[in-house]
């Protein structure tokens, strides 16, 4: 279906069909997720024109384009191949007489239809699709489970669906997959946690759920590359809620994250940047041998976003421990900071200045 859609429907960054098109002050349209990721990385120029943007650029919803895309995708599938009515597809997921192949076929149709169409996603939840999808998520068949997780992820993309899916019991099913699913299923399950945690009330619900944070920390230990990255992203999403930081710390997240950061998983520094905000997090980081060395390495080699979090984390630690100040000096942090003072990124310059001031106040250097 995607090959039939006009190129103007595609985000210039991701090249995917836009689900939430927004207009930059430069006048160009991007998918919200893609341009937000661009801005969060510290960029303050338009990806197309390269012209400078305000420090906090306004993202204006492009309702006209969104409506065009929605209408086009609703019409296009019928031109390509006949598709059963949504209610019939949903019924096949819950029917005891439906074979695995029938359910898999229904899920495949629904995944395709919900990928880019927010209106169709809302319609499915209104038709009561959640129980059937969650039942398939709990299936022992890996193919059925993976396809059901993909559909659950699509449904969770709409803010209007997030609280309802949690109320339907999505967290219980997802946590079980984090523990016992295939590698691909575990990665999707962690991504679903991230998506559901966009809504503030869900952060508290997820964190308070038995074994939720523990399962994500376990995935950091036992998972492969993609699983570890998605687990770290999910922890970052839910640890913006203060109570969840202590829960993550109690589950032993700090030394694991520092080890992963040392092994090249930069997403770990973002989580550490949240955990360092509480006393328990700082105390745990101080116990880890080589913590400062790893953080200084991020300042030296990390991305713009990684450097921001590295500076913030190191400053929080040095502010409450003179010993760590001297460790940072010995690792060459002053020379690095002198170079970062010239960075274009305003946050990096500000965090660098704060770290230098902290070192001076602790008499680590003159």
Automatic annotation (TrEMBL):
An annotated Gene Ontology molecular function: ubiquitin protein ligase activity
Species of provenance: Gossypium trilobum
Record pathway: Protein modification; protein ubiquitination
Listed name of the protein: RING-type E3 ubiquitin transferase
Top-rank taxon: Eukaryota
InterPro entries, per the entry: ARM-like, ARM-type_fold, ARM_PUB, Armadillo, RING-Ubox_PUB, Ubox_domain, Znf_RING/FYVE/PHD
Membrane-spanning ranges: none
Pfam family membership, one: U-box
């Amino acid at each position: 279906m995607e090959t039939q859609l006009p190129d103007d429907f595609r985000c210039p960054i991701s090249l995917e069909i836009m689900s939430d098109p927004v207009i930059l002050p430069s006048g160009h349209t991007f998918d919200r997720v893609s341009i937000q990721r661009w801005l969060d990385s510290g960029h303050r120029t338009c990806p197309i024109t390269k012209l400078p943007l305000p420090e906090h650029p306004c993202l204006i919803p492009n309702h006209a384009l969104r409506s065009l895309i929605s209408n086009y995708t609703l019409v296009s599938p019928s031109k390509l191949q006949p598709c059963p009515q949504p209610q019939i597809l949903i019924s096949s997921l819950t029917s005891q007489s439906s074979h695995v192949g029938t359910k898999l076929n229904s899920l495949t149709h629904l995944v395709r239809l919900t990928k880019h169409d927010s209106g169709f996603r809302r319609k499915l939840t209104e038709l009561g699709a959640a129980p059937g999808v969650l039942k398939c998520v709990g299936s022992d068949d890996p193919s059925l489970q993976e396809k059901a997780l993909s559909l659950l992820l699509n449904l969770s993309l709409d803010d209007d669906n997030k609280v309802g899916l949690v109320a339907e019991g999505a967290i219980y099913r997802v946590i079980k997959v984090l523990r016992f699913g295939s590698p691909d299923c575990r990665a999707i399950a962690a991504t679903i946690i991230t998506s559901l945690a966009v809504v503030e009330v869900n952060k508290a619900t997820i964190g308070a759920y038995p074994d939720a944070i523990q399962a994500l920390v376990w995935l950091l230990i036992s998972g492969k590359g993609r699983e570890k990255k998605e687990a770290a992203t999910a922890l970052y999403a839910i640890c913006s809620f203060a109570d969840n930081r202590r829960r993550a710390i109690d589950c032993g997240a700090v030394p694991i994250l520092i080890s992963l950061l040392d092994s090249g998983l930069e997403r770990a520094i973002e989580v550490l940047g949240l955990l360092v905000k509480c006393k328990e997090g700082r105390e745990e980081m101080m116990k880890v041998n080589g913590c400062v060395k790893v953080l200084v390495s991020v300042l030296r080699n990390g991305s713009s976003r990684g450097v921001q979090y590295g500076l913030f984390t190191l400053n929080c630690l040095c502010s409450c421990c003179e010993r760590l100040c001297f460790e940072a000096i010995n690792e060459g942090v002053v020379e690095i900071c002198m170079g970062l003072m010239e960075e274009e990124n305003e946050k990096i310059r500000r965090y660098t200045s704060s770290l230098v001031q902290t070192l001076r106040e602790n008499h680590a250097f003159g």
